[in-house]
Amino acid sequence: MSKVIVITGASSGIGETTAKLLAKNGHQLVLGARRDSKLQQIVTDIKAAGGTAVYKSTDVTDLSSVKALAKLALDSFGKIDVWMNNAGLMPHSEFIKGKVDDWNRMIDVNLRGILYGINAALPSMRAQKSGQFINMASVAAHAVHQGGGVYSATKAGVLMISEALRQEEAAAKSNVRVTVVSPGAIATELVENVTDPTTKAALEKYYQQTAISPDRIASSIMAAIDLPADASVNEIVIRPTGQE
Ligand code: NDP
């Protein structure tokens, strides 16, 4: 069944790859991120391949911008079946480096952005008595390493927010499903946003040796979306087979 699927952070990496796979399989896509030109190209690619997609420049740290993305979905297709809270960043650094701006950006995008997505989409899902959130966490939600304290805190927060939402929607009998995706190392632009040069060099080396294609994540997400509505995948933990 064709679904209306909104994806934040759809201009690269996991978001872009998942959007293209879902569109190829007949779903209708609504894409948001800040880089307008990237989104425009992705929508052009999707349409050229016979799919359906619209986009809107979106900053997930701005509630009105996130609500405008939800409005685009409702105006274009009349409903929101799936909202994928995917936008995120991982500028690791040790606390002694004092990268307060990076800490704040992670809290704003990785945590506040997810809450704004829920705020924008949940009322219409409640009204139609069906829906699904796909919230991007990470294996870093389950374990912390040096330099990753703030990132892990935000991603562990995504787990807690998602589980509370799942319980609330189950209690309300709203048929809204909640799926957390916790990937390991995936080859995307994520490491490009690391601002501490030493950490960035180490991460680039690690990702070159370890990371797998975002295709793998996209397939897992599509499986969770395509599952019959009476079953809900609550978390997908997926990492490279060789990742320790
Ligand atoms: P990318 O850097 O390729 O994608 C991140 C996306 O987030 C981009 O499309 C970017 O778009 C968007 N974004 C960043 N800030 C904002 C903002 N303020 N408003 C809207 N969009 C924003 O990395 P990934 O594809 O890897 O990351 C996707 C998700 O997967 C993230 O939540 C990440 O934490 C998670 N993840 C990734 C892993 C990996 O190894 N790659 C592992 C575990 C989790 P733009 O700049 O155009 O706004």
UniProtKB/TrEMBL annotation:
Its taxonomic path starts at: Bacteria, Bacillati, Bacillota, Bacilli, Lactobacillales
> Coiled-coil regions in this chain?
none
> What are the protein's UniProt keywords?
Oxidoreductase
**What transmembrane ranges does the database entry give?**
none
Name of the featured protein: Short-chain dehydrogenase
What organism does the record attribute this protein to? Answer: Lentilactobacillus diolivorans DSM 14421
Q: What family is reported?
A: Belongs to the short-chain dehydrogenases/reductases (SDR) family.
Q: Which PROSITE patterns match?
A: ADH_SHORT (PS00061)
Record's signal peptide: none
Which GO MF terms does the UniProt record name? oxidoreductase activity, acting on the CH-OH group of donors, NAD or NADP as acceptor
